[in-house]
Specification:
CATH superfamily of the largest domain: Aldolase class I
Radius of gyration: 22 Å
Bound molecules: S-adenosyl-L-homocysteine
Strand order of the largest sheet: 3-4-5-6-9-10-11-12-13-14
Shape: globular
Helix content: 25-40%
Distance between the termini: 24 Å
Order of helices and strands: EHHHEEEEEEEHEHEHEHHHEHEHEH
Strand content: 15-25%
CATH architecture of the largest domain: Alpha-Beta Barrel
Length: 358
């Protein structure tokens, strides 16, 4: 006779102290041990054997019933400017990318929120294979822990700008934002976190309702519905009117400035008329524009504008009173941008799965 048993393995990085307490008490462990366990983990100690203040039985429970979703490093590229791009392997064998950047004020990471993406933006490499699955909050935390131990420093800034659409994975991202800033978690202040979205309008309202301090960044890239629809399928669902209604709602609710990302594509959206149209669109909102000269991707149809054109675009926005920065190009020599490392790794014969997907 076969006895079928459901084996539940808990991912420790997905749990809050209260949740872990419940799990542990349900397994006959003392609830107060939960805080000790999370303490170890957020200090970078994942092996229960090394959690020296825990009794042997608790360590055994952890070994047998739990995992810690700190991803394995599959490949690391270091750029001339010091930027490191990591290709990580998750516990189920899926690959994701994350980037570590050093600034004067500390270390900043860019992490993924999904394996793949279903948004279909035409200039982006992460969406080429569609969405494979959502990441859990613990898998997002795991990327930060792995990058922190890689550089040996605390991480002070986090951007959700790796592969995936954060607002298409709302519940897990919400949980991540809580845990990453909690004193028992990574303790990274919400003002040091930025969430970037291609413009899922109803979820921007839901995000506003969370009433947190996280910076919102909008990938705008075009100034009319017709042109935006050609570049970004999400614009077919939510037009600029709906998008800006949701942004007004967000700003009324939070009072926070909104960041706009504008990827500059040669002869597509890099003219001075385009800069003026952008300034008109942003009128009335407290905003900041981040200009991103396109990172050209393999088999991509779009090109990057000349630097002079980028500067002229910025100057025009400046003249119109719009605050801008040109995104510092970090790691462009190592495929650091937007899903390119994973693609080039796969193209060179790397495998998509770790072999534990039988
Ligand atoms: N899905 C989210 C976050 C991930 S992408 C979003 O759309 O905002 C992070 C940023 O990189 C977005 O602004 C995205 O439009 C931009 N991006 C993607 N591919 C790019 C490329 N090849 N060159 C320049 N920017 C790119």
């Amino acid at each position: 006779m076969h006895v079928w048993m459901a084996i539940v393995v808990y991912n420790l990085l997905d749990q809050s102290p209260e949740e872990l307490k419940k799990i542990m008490t349900a397994h006959g462990e003392s609830g107060f041990r939960a805080n000790q366990v999370l303490n170890w983990i957020y200090q970078g100690v994942y092996n229960p054997e090394h959690m020296t203040n825990l009794p042997a039985a608790t360590r055994r429970f952890l070994k047998e019933e739990t995992v810690c979703s700190v991803p394995g490093l599959e490949k690391l590229s270091t750029s001339k400017d010091g930027t490191k791009k990591a290709l990580f392997r998750l516990l189920d064998g899926q690959l994701i990318e994350a980037v570590l950047m050093k600034y004067e004020h500390g270390y900043s990471v860019c992490i993924s929120t999904q394996v793949g993406c279903r948004m279909g933006c035409r200039f982006c490499a992460s969406t080429r294979g569609g969405l494979i699955r959502n990441l859990t909050s613990g898998e997002m935390i795991g990327q930060i822990l792995a990058l922190s131990s890689l550089c040996g420093h605390r991480i002070s800034n986090v951007v959700l700008m790796g592969s995936g659409e954060p607002l298409d994975n709302f519940e897990e991202v919400r949980r991540f934002l809580e845990h990453v800033s909690a004193p028992w978690g990574l303790g990274i202040g919400q003002r040091h976190i930025t969430l970037s979205t291609c413009g899922v309008a109803p979820m921007i309202r839901a995000f506003a309702d969370l009433d947190n301090q996280v910076t919102l960044a909008i990938s705008l890239h075009q100034t009319t519905d017709a042109k935006r629809r050609e570049l970004m399928p999400i614009a077919q669902r939510y037009d600029l009117q709906e998008l800006f209604d949701s942004l007004n709602y967000y700003q009324q609710k939070t009072g926070r400035r909104i960041s706009f990302e504008f990827a500059l594509l040669r002869d597509v959206n890099d003219s001075l008329e385009e800069a003026r149209a952008l300034a008109i669109l942003l009128r009335g909102l407290k905003s900041h524009v981040n200009l991103i000269p396109l990172n050209e991707i393999e088999q991509g149809v779009f090109r990057r504008p000349d630097p002079a054109k980028v500067r002229a675009f910025q100057k025009e926005l400046d003249r119109l009173g719009i605050e801008t920065t040109i995104r510092r190009e970090m790691g462009s020599d190592i495929d650091a941008a937007c899903g390119q490392l994973k693609r080039s790794y796969l193209d060179q014969g790397g495998t998509d799965h770790g072999g534990n997907d039988q």
